[in-house]
Amino acid sequence: MVEQRNLVLAYDPNQMYPLLAQGYRVLLCTEDPIPPEVDSHPDSLRMSILLPPYEVVSYEINGDVNTMAAAYQQYLATNPSVITIIDIIYLSAYLGNPTAICFGSEVRDLHFGQVLLQYLSMTMGLNFQPNGYGSIETNVCASVVSRMYLMNEINGTQALSYYPPNMDIEFNMLQKLIAEFNPPLVGADMAMDGNTYFRKMVLQLKGQATNTNGQQFYSPFTAGPAVHEHHEGCNCGGNHG
Q1: Which residue from 129, 93, 106, 108 is spatially nearest to 50, judged by alpha carbons?
Q2: For a Cys-Cys bond, which of 5, 32, 82, 129 suits 104, CB 3.0-4.6 Å?
């Protein structure tokens, strides 16, 4: 199901402070200089990891836009840190957090910005619009939550608190939940009984920000900067500069 969200597409980092003041999360997909009031804001996040690596950009510099697009999509789909970041962006938007993705001067000369936007739309159902009336495909949420849980980005309680209600638990996620929670399943069909058990937990947890002990389930973007810093410190080949 497609639902409207406050997802803004922007091209000037210098104009982002008004959005930050309105409570937007601003994702800076540029290596342009950032105004101090934007760069230091806690809801302003540098997303250099989403920029194409230099070897990908070199295809377009040499005039081969199609190869650049294919190589960039491959990078977005296979880099574990990128996958995690995009999943976090999706989950944050799914939960209703207003979000802006902001490019810089790079997109005036290169086409990677359009490739990224098309990738987010086609694979995640995320559509950013200049007027802010973006949209999200909510049916993707189950696979996003399942993937984040299986990659140990969130724990079982966190995963269940954000899993869509009235949907069967994805099989691999279900197997891990059974191992983590060891629920009292006595039926002959463990998968069917486990699915019923955890779907009830989803309904019980839905809409709660904390459990009974006051512990936060999950805050999208909490893991974002940590993942980003890890990427810049690892041997990833370097992004476009």
Answers
A1: 106
A2: 32
